[in-house]
Amino acid sequence: MVNRKPLHFRYNHKDLNNVNLKFRHVFIFFIVIFAFCSNLPYPHPFLLFLFICFIIIYPLYLSHRRAIPYKIYIEQRYFVCGNTLLYYKDITKILITNSDISIYSTCNPKIFKIEKDLFPTNARKPEKIINNKNKKFNSVVDKIINNILKVSSVPIEDHRTVPPT
Fold it and tell me: Where would you find the membrane-spanning parts of this chain (predicted)?
């Protein structure tokens, strides 16, 4: 079996970083520290608490913010976008328009969307920005559709219109 790297495209997904159990424990830990600092004979216990919070919470915040990469990873059996993992065999329907692709899945009650406007580009001119976003969106859609068709026969509704040249 050949190990190959997944295709990846930069994409500013809308998945928020979830407040997980680690941060709940950290929050409770800091409430305890605040209670401890307020009982010290230190003249400004709140400043001491803020200093401790800045030293511990800020690095945790920065590391958690970067935990979810802003990319779409496309593999042969699945793709990953933010917190969402979709296997191609679980997809029931695909709807493609000029601005987005909607993917219906059996395991996910929400409709998963990939929007064209969320692909970043380094271009500065408006025409180049539009062209780059169109190219990236179309290449991602084509890769996903090709991989889905290899795995199963899913109804695909393509409502894209070809812009006049």
Answer: 21-40, 46-62
